[in-house]
Amino acid sequence: MTELANASPLDEAEIDELEAFLFSDLVSEEALDYPSLHGLLSAVAICPTVIDKAEWLEAIFDGQPRYADDAQQLRIESLLLRELDGIRTELDHEEPPELPCDLELDEDSLLTPWSQGFMEGVFMREEDWFGSNEEQVAELLLPIMIASKLFDDDAELQQMRANPKLIQGLCQEIPDLLTDLYLLFRVPDQGQPKGPKGKAGKAKSGRKR
Prior knowledge:
mainly alpha; about 0% strand
């Protein structure tokens, strides 16, 4: 639970406000954009161990923003906390989270930065994610790993990328797989998720930054 439980989702104006801050001179040029931070916060919400707010804020902003004043800091952090709470609420209700991008993977797809942000969140606690369920977690992460394009030197994933129909089918499953991961870490006795329907072999958890 976050400190803003049951808060309403961000509306379009608030998302625009957040994006304007992310692209302002007050933050690092390496700060995440909105799709990427949504991906990272999705991983923070799913992670089997708690990640402190200060840590994921630093990951989003690539350091500490130069806030104009305390009121601006409170406003921006409250928007991010509401975003995280909204994702957690969907997962708590076993609802596939709504992603801020289409699930089609093409050259300019926002699914790629979303997936890169998600994997950055996974890398923050990689041992916790893969510690006791490495094979199954890797299978569930497979579509996100492919969409992130961070693992393009993996021969197996290269082979899968040669089949666009397979890749598109896998990407369509990402919201459901997020729910599977959340349940796997919290209610393992409820049954084992089946993983991607289009899985063609085992994904690897090796990291490439």
